Amino acid sequence: MSSVLNATKQAVLCYHCGDEVKNGALHYDEKSFCCDGCKTVYSILQQNNLCNYYNIEQTPGNAIKTAISESKFAFLELPEIQEQLHDFNDGKTARVTFYIPAVHCSSCIWLLEKLYRLNAGITSSRIDFVRKQLSIVYKPAEISLKQLVVLLSQLGYEPLLSLNDVVKKNDKSTQRSLIKKIAVAGFCFGNIMLLSFPEYFGFDSYSRQNFPLLFNALNIVLALPVFFYSGWMYITSAIKGIRSRYINIDVPLALGIVVLLVRSLYEVIAEVGPGYFDTLAGLIFFLLVGKWFQSRTYDFLSFERDYKSYFPLAVTTIVSGKEKSIPAGQIQKGQRLLIRHGELIPADGILMRGTASIDYSFVTGETQPIDKVLGEVVFAGGRQMGAAIEVEVVKEVSQSYLTQLWNNDAFKKVDTSRLVSFSDTVSRYFTIVLITLAIGTALFWLVMGDGGKAWGAFTAILIIACPCALALSTPFTMGNALRILGKNRFYLKNSAVVEKIAHTNHIVFDKTGTLTQNNGQQITFTGVLGEDEKQWIAAITKSSAHPLSRGIYENLMLTNPPQPESCEEVAGKGMYGVVEGNTVLIGSASFMGIAPTKENAGSFEATTTKVYVQINNVPKGYYTFTNKYRQGVEPLTKELDNDYELHVLSGDNDGEREALTQWFNSRNLHFNCKPQQKLDFVQSLQTGNAQVMMIGDGLNDAGALKQSDVGVALTDEVSNFTPACDAVLDAVELERFPVFLKFTKRCVTVIHSSFGISVLYNLVGLYFAVQGTMSPLVAAILMPLSSVTVVSFTTGLTNIFAKRLKLLK
Amino acid sequence: MTVIFILIGCSLVLALVFLGAFFWSIKSGQNDDLVTPGYRVLFEDDNKEQQAEQPEPTVQ
User: Fold this and answer.
1) Residue A49 is nearest to which of B31, B40, B50, comparing CB atoms?
2) With an 8 Å Cβ cutoff, is A117 touching chain B?
3) What whole-number distance in Å separates Cα of residue A59 and Cα of residue A81?
4) Is B48 on the interface with A (CB under 8 A)?
5) Beta bridge partners of A715
6) More confident residue, A698 or A179
7) A129–B4: do the CB atoms touch at under 8 Å?
């Protein structure tokens, strides 16, 4: 209770969304709300007895700042769009899965699974919290797809409907089948071990009866599924590798597995021994567990998004004065599009009606909207802020300024990795040495005239030298590194990326949104303003919703400015008004009658914006809006400078050159880079044999991210969309980035040293094997022992390194 | 000692039953989402509780 009282003393919080209630709270049912949207949601929930929503978590709602217009979702009535969205639809029941970015707490789960109480047409709904996916089963006869989406939007859970499918379909089949294979291998391994125990200990009563016959027969029965079901993929992978004349680590593994099976079968059938079925099953079981450990990834992140995931599913065209929805894929040159507030421009076009104020933050990371006037070109990827505009398409979606980047070859390559991993390099030599040794020993015994020993030694070498420990060291080291880095908010696409990061020697930074902050601009005034004048400026800017005016108003920090006598906003230019008898003019250079120059005009990716102030026809000076650099850029560059060649690619003009030269070598600063040029730059570094890491954030870096050996997307909000990349870094961790890089290098060292251990085991085993005296017991002990040592060594050592670098507590 | 034959047969069959159960659980998707059910189980049956409070619906 006291906390509630405290809260009311400090600030009134909206009961629904928890935002601070600023100017004039809306009261309803003895509760305060910040806006009409929040109040409406509350009233809907209250009428349906769903207020438990507010009991599970405090202020769980999502603020709805703009009204939901049904026309926005008109495209959901198109049959081709519906077909694309439905998982299943037979006319009576339909199932659809939405990706809902706003899902964030347990209240969300509760409410979204109670949708059937809001509308009788909804049969059931199930949410996957981690993936933020909601599956709804409904009756299309009672509620249409459009009504469903409108209902969700009204509750503050607007689904993201984009050109690309953002819902992750059941791609779990590979993961599922791996788990099944592990289960079978584990089951058989355990039972074979059990049945082999009497043999190990050599009980008299055991061998005197018929037990060995039965136990060995059972072992064969249990070993067959392990070989043909669980371990089969090693055989096929090895064959594939040999066919493409490439010896991967699966070749010696497959060789070992096959020899194990053949020799064991021979021994049992010829009744000379119990065989090595336990070793076979154990080997495959451990290998599969390693594979599984490595394959765990971050489900809630997507590393494969391209521009299509950002672009709308459908657009509104205007055909002879009437609005009509068409799928975005069908946009053609010359069509007229209607872009409403908050909608994305899907193709390059010319502004035909309205005032455009376009937020290119998707593309450049720059949140400052850019104003455009009639006849100017608007680029695809921008988001219109303000009243609706009409745009005539001049280029199709795939040919637009931004999207044509995806036509580049870099996006057609399946894997751009040029790095051969350590285990692959080693396994090539390993296999050659192994086979030579095996054949050599066999020949030696044949020359000595001992055919039985030749066969025994040959197979024993292939069994004992099977690089199980080697095959385990990489997945366990890298898998553990992936987890540790993930705990520190550096998320890797897969564990192979760890090794790639460790090998980079060039790091390329994007500037806007990566080195600079997305929000939190620095506002400085050049000129002199009196206290009165500040009051007047505050009075004028207070009423405007334009981000620049808001910035100035908040920067002045005056609470009670006078009421202006008149105040007018000229869209895209500025504001003027009269306060206490004084005319105040605030706006762009052209608005003031100052000739526009390269300095003061806003460009596509401008970083500095100037807003001029004129009072009573006397110029007073101008406000400069500059981007703030992120915290930690300085220590970051200092730390990295010794080991890496650092570059900066900026889409902007060189206005920030001076600021950047304090941290970067001025030779390595590149300005005015188009997305394609960024890609080309990375490519040119690579031809010079550099391993390049690109760190960027916007879609304009997508090409460079893809081309680079390691693309790292920096983001303020991890669950937001990031362009296709190899790793996602939370922006707050930028300062610790050098530590992460150091850690990946340590992990490679761990792999190298664990390789030493596995070689040591192999040498011991080989000592017995070449003499042709390897008992099944030795093999059964040596194999699991080496696996367990390597696994505990790699995970233990990576944990120790992580603790030293303060990545683990 | 012949009882061993029966015991081994029983233990194998029993273990196979568990393996089958595990396969079924994978196939039915029980392991696909390991997070949401944990929240779901904490929600109380709110129907009675809410009815008892009887909020007066104000239709606007």
Assistant:
1) B50
2) no
3) 35
4) no
5) A730
6) A179
7) no
Task: For residue A128, give the 3-state DSSP assignment.
Answer: strand
Q: What is the pTM of this model?
A: 0.78
Asked if A436 is an interface residue toward chain B (Cβ–Cβ < 8 A), one would say no
DSSP H stretches of helix in A173-311: 173-201, 204-208, 211-225, 232-243, 250-269, 277-295
pLDDT at A418: 57
Residues 6+ apart with CB under 8 A from A788: none
Nearest CA in chain B to A134: B36
Lowest mean pLDDT among A145-149, A392-396, A799-803, B49-53: B49-53
**What is the value of ipTM here, to two decimals?**
0.78
pLDDT band at B53 (very low <50, low <70, confident <90, very high): very low
Interchain CB contact of B51 with A (< 8 Å): yes
CA A269 to chain centre: 54
- Give the chain B residue nearest A104 (alpha carbons): B36
Q: Does A113 touch chain B (CB under 8 A)?
A: yes
pLDDT digits (tens, 9 = 90+) for A527-556: 888 888 888 888 888 777 666 777 788 777
CB pairs under 8 A between A and B: 69
Put simply, the answer to whether A130 touches B35 (Cβ < 8 Å) is yes
With beta carbons less than 8 A apart as the criterion, state whether A347 and A396 touch.
yes
Structure tokens at A720: 């937001």
Q: Decide the pairing of beta strands A710-715 and A692-696.
A: parallel
Provide the pLDDT confidence category of residue A738 given band limits of 50, 70 and 90.
very high
Considering only CB atoms, B33 lies closest to which of A110, A130, A195, namely A130
B59 contacts on A by Cβ (under 8 Å): 47
E runs forming strands in A244-393: 314-319, 322-327, 336-339, 349-353, 356-359, 370-372, 377-378, 383-384, 389-393
For A139-189, how does the pLDDT look when each residue is reduced to its tens digit (9 = 90+)? 988 999 988 998 898 888 888 887 766 665 555 677 788 999 999 999 999
SS3 at position A27: strand
Give, for B53, the enclosing helix (H) or strand (E). Answer: helix B47-53
Token pair of B1 as six digits = 């000692």
